[in-house]
Amino acid sequence: MSMQEELKGLEQQAFESIKNATELNVLDAIRIEYLGKKGKLTQVLKGMRNLDASQRPIVGSLANDVRDKLTVQLEETKEKLEMKKMKEKITQEKIDITLPGKNIPRGYAHVITQIMEELEDLFIGMGYQVVEGPEVEADSYNFERMNLPKDHPARDMQDTFYITEETLMRTHTSPVQARTMDTHDFSKGPLKMISPGKVYRRDNDDATHSHQFHQIEGLVVDKNISMSDLKGTLEIFAKKMFGEEREIRLRPSYFPFTEPSVEVDVSCFRCGGKGCSVCKQTGWIEILGAGIVHPNVLEMSGIDSTEYSGFAFGMGPDRIAMLKYGIDDIRHFYQNDLRFLEQFKVRR
Ligand code: PHE
């Protein structure tokens, strides 16, 4: 058999095996079998040295030809097999989106936060802006600007934690009144704000007292603001928060930063006013303090008290939550007992 015939036969054989190969490793074995260092083609070429010099270039070029063809064939088949393998893999790895996922436990807002956000929504709806102030506050803002000079006896009711002699944990959210009045530009319209946040007092903790609790301050300053504006606003608040049938009642009170001052009661939402254990048989529940902003407080912020007037109120979300849900001890809010907190799980 001539070398040409041998080469042709080899090519035929190789083509046949390549065609039948269905696995990449089989294909690789074929490549080594024919084109490898000790492969069949190499073997045939070794026989070239026995050829006539005239024959060598002819056989050489044929051998190159066969090698090139086989290489191309191997490459193409390899690509095809790889593609096939990839497709198989993709179909196998298909994700079943109908499988139930892992349940990731989701948090929820604390009951006090829920109440505060409910109140914020209510007042935002009436055009108020929500302002926050610092919990570590200057004595000047917490007391003096609220018309409580250093020797004022009403300071006793709001003893607190002092950072330095002039810096303290704020005892109420009222200092935010002064802070917003200082910066409000009345040429842009009336001042209407609420300020929610934490406050502190040196109280002995018991069922109704906590050394840290919450308040929401409210302040409106404009021309011709009167007691009737305050009353109308609080009526809306009481009805939205405790039910449409609720009424409010104002009782005279005293705060250094308001004059006149009132304590505001809402008719009992449990008994409707007949008298029960929630309202201690009075038919009314005290929910906040309020009043007409004292002229001194306006003047200290550089607001002309002959031209402008305002009302302010301060309410306690802790107390509101206790009343709303019949919670008998304020300390429950701060002990982080999930058995308590999970009763107020509201998904948002
Ligand atoms: N700051 C008062 C308090 O903590 C509440 C209050 C606010 C009363 C605004 C009147 C006006 O008791």
Topology:
Blueprint: H1 3-20, H2 24-35, H3 40-46, H4 56-92, H5 111-124, E1 129-130, E2 136-138, H6 139-142, E3 167-169, H7 175-183, E4 191-200, E5 212-222, H8 227-242, E6 248-255, E7 258-267, E8 284-293, H9 295-300, E9 309-315, H10 317-325, H11 338-341
Parallel strand pairs: 1-4
Antiparallel strand pairs: 2-3, 4-5, 5-9, 6-7, 7-8, 8-9
Helix pairs in contact: 1-4, 2-4, 5-10
Bound molecules: phenylalanine (PHE).
Tell me the span between the first and last alpha carbons. Answer: 88 Å
Low-confidence stretches: none
Which architecture of the largest domain would the CATH scheme give at its second level? Answer: 2-Layer Sandwich
The SSE order reads HHHHHEEHEHEEHEEEHEHH
Number of strands: 9
- For this structure, what is the CATH homologous superfamily of the largest domain? Bira Bifunctional Protein, Domain 2
Number of helices: 11
Strand content: 15-25%
Kindly report the spatial arrangement of strands forming the biggest sheet: 1-4-5-9-8-7-6
User: What share of the residues lie within helices?
Assistant: 25-40%
What would the CATH topology of the largest domain be?
Answer: BirA Bifunctional Protein, domain 2
| SS-based class | alpha+beta
Largest sheet: 7 strands, mixed
Task: Give the ligands present.
Answer: phenylalanine
Structurally, the number of domains stands at: 2
What is the global morphology?
Answer: rod-shaped
